[in-house]
């Protein structure tokens, strides 16, 4: 066992040596790492992960988490933890499984000590200590005066530390806001109580049976065992970067190498339930969760010295050597004067006198104000950046940003608003000679705020003048379980429910088909039609529908209706008619269907890569009382003989300021790379929109490797030398996990690039 623990220490040293390439302060100019170096590093890091797990098992006992839970059946997962899905853990099982995880923040004392890591500051501190010691033994009238010098030096060092701690403490407090992603409570089944109980999230252990419902924040990594609603949708954008909610199921995912985005039977800690209700078994808590691993990896990362810190270290080393030589020389030259009568004939007093002169010379040679000036300048830089909504956690990061050559950026919420928005839609104006004449519209606005216009051929139109748009707005408003909410404290509109449906709510407000006040349009439509029944979305039919009856006569109908929305190919497959012009309908032929699908494919695969939803209605629906609602497999039969009304296309739009920011980076010679967990097509679309990839670059890259970006799986399958080449040339990485981001940054650093991750 001792030998194994020694191997752990040796492996840590080897990996640190490979990562750093030498000792701090004596680091040679960076040179590109060879394929052998990178391959060796990858193998050693794999060994290190295994040894870390062994070390944890040796100290705390075997890990209670379950590896690759997504590949196992529900029965296998429950059997692994020895838990009953209905009753949960017993008190004895709970006691054995309990793991405690402490806070991971820096204390105030740690921040103070960090301010004294600079070599120049340490030299000054040493000089102050020596001066103070000599002043303590000073005799005569100059005793008080002798303390002035060390006091002034200490005053400068304290002022420098106060400025640094003040700035970094402010940044730490701002970062605390990010902890809102951490859940506080969870609902569990345990044998000591007959019903579900609420417990603190930190008290949940692997093996617990947890219940989640719409609006809940997932308290741990959970393997789903049962979905107690028609569907379960989860917003996991904070972890994977996906713009829309993800449909979950309980079936095993057989691929052990599946990325988090493909683990459809898993719920991840910190993500939000957008729709549905389910139960599952906890397979990981604390730092063993996917989001916990990110935090653990960040904490374990060995920080690199910034270019300024390296220069200051080199300057400090050279200065300390020169000062030492001069001081020793001055002291040595005066050895013959140690016994002069002026010193009372005492050799020792003469030696101390000239030693004090040497120390005074050393203090005079040291630029005491340099650390304070640098700290003050960096602090002023952080304040200026804070006014532009950029929080700098560490002062040296300000200087590093000025040297950055590559910026690796996430997509969702960073380059984009993380607020789905409808930007295009079409309805059918008429059908002539087996061809549809479409009325296509564009919609402005990039957030959930109901502010924007509907345009046709560049001109703003009144949607109330188009009967098809009135019916389309009605479907969007009623076939919808989400809503917009105005947050008065933040002065912004926020989603309540699923992002896609919230985008439809926002579209309805912008269309304003009844010429009412924008903030009250949706309630107006809901007053006209009463929702009787909802058939929730399911994976097999890829649609949802609602049965509605009129409270009063509407412009588009005189009786009960069934409104349907879903994937265009699925909805059109069940359509028999097309709504045209003034409200009439014509038969939907195979040629017309193919034309409509062609338009949808163009929107979904072109420059915009839009997420498309088709809207349809059944004018004479069956009586809701006759429907079998226990079996969702029969819902597609009820959603038949539909009339196609129109289609909308939406996306997570780029932020307004991003295009100009990317352009400025290009002008400054900084390469911008997108690294996201979202789909490849969506990622490439945003890259083109914000200028990370230009049309000229795509034309020039035809026939070269890695054109069109890489997914995390494709990147893994490349040998080390091609991975390094991909990091040098590729501008877009999609469907990646945090481990991929870390490896890409390491490759870029091995290519002598100063890399920033945002």
Automatic annotation (TrEMBL):
- Tell whether Oxidoreductase is among the UniProt keywords: no
**Membrane topology for this entry?**
Multi-pass membrane protein
Transmembrane feature ranges:
119-137, 143-166, 319-339, 351-380
PROSITE patterns for the chain:
ATPASE_E1_E2
- Name the cofactor(s): Mg(2+)
Under Enzyme Commission nomenclature, its number is 7.2.2.10
The record's keywords, sorted A to Z, are: ATP-binding, Calcium, Calcium transport, Copper, Copper transport, Endoplasmic reticulum, Ion transport, Magnesium, Membrane, Metal-binding, Nucleotide-binding, Phosphoprotein, Sarcoplasmic reticulum, Translocase, Transmembrane, Transmembrane helix, Transport
InterPro entries in alphabetical order: ATPase_P-typ_cation-transptr_N, ATPase_P-typ_cyto_dom_N, ATPase_P-typ_P_site, ATPase_P-typ_TM_dom_sf, ATPase_P-typ_transduc_dom_A_sf, ATPase_P-type_domA, HAD-like_sf, HAD_sf
Main location group: endoplasmic reticulum
Every Cation-transporting P-type ATPase N-terminal domain range? 68-136
What's its top-level EC category? translocase
Please tell me whether the keyword Repeat is annotated for this protein.
Answer: no
Localization in the cell? Endoplasmic reticulum membrane; Membrane; Sarcoplasmic reticulum membrane
User: Which residue windows does the record flag with biased composition (Basic residues)?
Assistant: 18-27
Q: Which GO terms describe its molecular function?
A: ATP binding; ATP hydrolysis activity; metal ion binding; P-type calcium transporter activity
GO biological process, any: copper ion transport
Q: Which reaction does it catalyse?
A: Ca(2+)(in) + ATP + H2O = Ca(2+)(out) + ADP + phosphate + H(+)
One GO CC annotation, please? Answer: sarcoplasmic reticulum membrane
Q: Which PANTHER family does this entry report, sorted A to Z?
A: CALCIUM-TRANSPORTING ATPASE (PTHR42861)
Q: What does this protein do?
A: Catalyzes the hydrolysis of ATP coupled with the transport of calcium.
Which protein is depicted? Calcium-transporting ATPase
State the organism of origin.
Answer: Bagarius yarrelli (Goonch)
């Amino acid at each position: 066992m001792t030998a194994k623990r020694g191997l752990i220490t040796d492996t840590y040293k080897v990996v640190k040596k490979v990562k750093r390439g030498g000792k701090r302060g004596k680091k040679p100019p960076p040179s590109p790492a060879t394929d052998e170096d990178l391959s060796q590093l990858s193998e050693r890091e794999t060994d290190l992960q295994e040894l870390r797990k062994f070390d944890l098992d040796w100290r705390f006992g075997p890990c209670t988490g379950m590896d690759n839970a997504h590949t196992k059946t529900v029965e296998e997962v429950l059997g692994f933890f020895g838990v009953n899905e209905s009753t949960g853990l017993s008190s004895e099982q709970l006691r054995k499984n309990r793991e405690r995880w402490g806070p991971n923040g820096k204390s105030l004392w740690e921040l103070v000590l960090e301010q004294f890591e600079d070599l120049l500051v340490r030299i000054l501190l040493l000089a102050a200590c020596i001066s103070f010691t000599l002043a303590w033994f000073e005799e005569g009238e100059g005793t008080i005066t002798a303390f002035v010098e060390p006091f002034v030096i200490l005053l400068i060092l304290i002022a420098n530390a106060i400025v640094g701690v003040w700035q970094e403490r402010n940044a730490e407090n701002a970062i605390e806001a990010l902890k809102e992603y951490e859940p506080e409570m969870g609902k569990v089944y345990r044998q000591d109580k007959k019903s579900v109980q609420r417990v603190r999230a930190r008290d949940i252990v692997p093996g617990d049976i947890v219940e989640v419902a719409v609006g809940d924040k997932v308290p741990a990594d959970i393997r789903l065992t049962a979905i107690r609603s028609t569907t379960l949708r989860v917003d996991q954008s904070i972890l994977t970067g996906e713009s829309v909610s993800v449909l979950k199921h309980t079936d095993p995912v057989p691929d052990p190498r599946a990325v988090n985005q493909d683990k459809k039977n898993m719920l991840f800690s910190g993500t939000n339930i957008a729709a549905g209700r389910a139960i599952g078994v906890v397979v990981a808590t604390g730092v063993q969760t996917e989001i916990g691993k990110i935090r653990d990896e960040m904490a374990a990362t060995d920080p690199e010295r910034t270019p300024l810190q390296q220069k200051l270290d080199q300057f400090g080393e050279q200065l300390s050597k020169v000062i030492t030589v001069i001081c020793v020389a001055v002291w040595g030259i005066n050895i013959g004067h140690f016994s002069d009568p002026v010193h009372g004939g005492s050799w020792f007093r003469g030696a101390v006198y000239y030693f004090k002169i040497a120390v005074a010379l050393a203090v005079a040679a040291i630029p005491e104000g340099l650390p304070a000036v640098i700290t003050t300048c960096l602090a002023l830089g952080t304040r200026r950046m804070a006014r532009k909504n950029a929080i700098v956690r560490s002062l040296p990061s300000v200087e590093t940003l000025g040297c950055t050559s590559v910026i690796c950026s996430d997509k969702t919420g960073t380059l984009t608003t993380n607020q789905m928005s409808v930007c295009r839609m079409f309805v059918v104006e008429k059908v002539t000679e087996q061809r549809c004449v479409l009325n296509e519209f564009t919609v402005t606005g990039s957030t959930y705020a109901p502010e924007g216009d509907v345009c046709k051929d560049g001109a703003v139109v009144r949607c109330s003048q188009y009967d098809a748009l009135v019916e389309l707005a009605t479907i969007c408003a009623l076939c919808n379980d989400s809503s917009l909410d105005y947050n008065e404290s933040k002065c912004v509109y926020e989603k309540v429910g699923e992002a896609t449906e919230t985008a439809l709510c926002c579209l309805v407000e912008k269309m304003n088909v009844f010429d009412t006040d924008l903030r009250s349009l949706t309630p107006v439509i809901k007053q006209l039609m009463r929702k009787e029944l909802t058939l929730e979305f399911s994976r097999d039919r890829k649609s949802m529908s609602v049965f509605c009856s009129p409270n009063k006569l509407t412009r588009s109908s005189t009786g009960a209706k069934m409104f349907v929305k879903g994937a265009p190919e699925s909805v059109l497959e069940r359509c028999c008619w097309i709504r045209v012009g003034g409200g009439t309908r014509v038969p939907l032929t195979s040629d017309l269907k193919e034309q409509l699908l062609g338009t949808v494919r163009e929107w979904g695969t072109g420059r915009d890569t839009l997420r498309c939803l088709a809207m349809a209605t059944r004018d004479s629906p069956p009586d809701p009382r006759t429907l079998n609602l226990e079996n969702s497999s029969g819902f597609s039969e009820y959603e038949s003989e539909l009339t196609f009304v129109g289609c909308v296309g939406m996306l997570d739009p780029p932020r307004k300021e991003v295009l100009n920011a990317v352009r400025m980076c290009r002008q400054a010679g900084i390469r911008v790379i997108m690294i996201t967990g979202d789909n490849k097509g969506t990622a490439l679309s945003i890259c083109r929109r914000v200028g990370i990839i230009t049309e000229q670059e795509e034309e020039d890259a035809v026939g070269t490797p890695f054109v069109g970006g890489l997914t995390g799986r494709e990147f893994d399958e490349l040998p080390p030398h091609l991975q390094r080449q991909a990091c040098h040339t590729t501008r877009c990485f999609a469907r990646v996990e945090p481990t991929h981001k870390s490896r890409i940054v390491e490759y870029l650093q091995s290519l002598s690039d100063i890399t920033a991750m945002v």
